[in-house]
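note to self: dont lose this again. the chain is below, predicted strucutre after it. 410 aa total, dont forget to put it in the shared folder this time
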Amino acid sequence: MSAIPAIDVDVFLNPALDRSAAYGAARSAILGQDALSAARADIQTWPGYALTPLHSLPGMARDIGVASIQYKDEGGRFGLGSFKALGGAYAVARLLCRVIGEHLGQAVTTQQLLAGAHRDLAQQVTVTCATDGNHGRSVAWGAQLFGCRCVIYIHATVSEGRRHAIEHYGAQVVRTAGNYDDAVRQADADAKALGRYVISDTSYEGYMDVPRDVMQGYQLMVEEAVQQAGAMPTHVFIQGGVGGLAAAVCGYFWERLGGARPRIIVVEPERADCLMQSARSGRVTAVHGDLDTLMAGLACGEVSLLAWSILEAGADAFAVIADEAAIDTMRLLAAPAAGDPAIVAGESAVAGLAAALGVAQNAGQRAALGIDGDSRLMFFGSERDTDPVLYHKLVGRRAAEVLAGAGAHA
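---
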């Protein structure tokens, strides 16, 4: 049996939480059932769409004293290695349909784009964004799939492996100085100067529609997990970043279950904790500096305003972990307890699970979050080994070796 690593977690209970509050029309306009229905009808027709697995980890659940642990493994999503395919590519499709439709004066559908219709007009459109890796790969793939051009901005610490993965889908990649938020500003400025369309997963003043589409695509993953799970989870520990994924998860459960929704705990790296700092200060708060964390997909210092409008009163708690916790959890999933499947998980994928493992070993935090022997924990494994070289370095085995040895570790 693999031992559960000792993990320190900083937990902050959300003082603005209001479980009696209705989800309301304003939040439904950001993330709502009608828009999810549209996203579902579209994305499920794309080539390569398939349910990603929801793994049950009974050995780990037993080891930390809870009823169940379920892990949604997004590593196989459209062959891109992460859940981001549901967001960025969907937003590219929506934007192209809108732009080309306005030009033609008629409705344009994703199916027409997939069939090659309007390819000449699509080629005149350039989409762009900043990325830590996965979102940019999704936007580049979507641009290739639907026929437009693409320029992706990466910041100073994004690995060459992630750069090459984006270039594989035909995008031009521009490396900028500074951190992720600096790259966001550069992508936005260049788009305004050059007539490009920004496909960002973060929202800010004057830029809301596209990030709304991105988050709506993410909710399809949540719906899949709920349908696969059988029983509703009691707790969801979810990665932070700019907040889009966490808001999609929180909004899905809040809209449907109100105060009976699972407890939502948002988890961030200790060097990029803009969501926790916003909760502590009671207002949107940026974190500055190089945001240097191994969890590259979560290295964000500025909160998405749309996401915060849901998380501000909807999240139960915010948690912060160190990079070492992510590494330990990646290794644990690769060499699991007896009876549990071996899982290949990237650095950002495991933040939620790492925090839950730490909380489960801390009596005070466990009690504060209501975790006991009847708790059903759900996690969203947002990426696989999106940087295979780094994964091998951290885990000591390649992804193929981990999966080939599944069941061999006890």
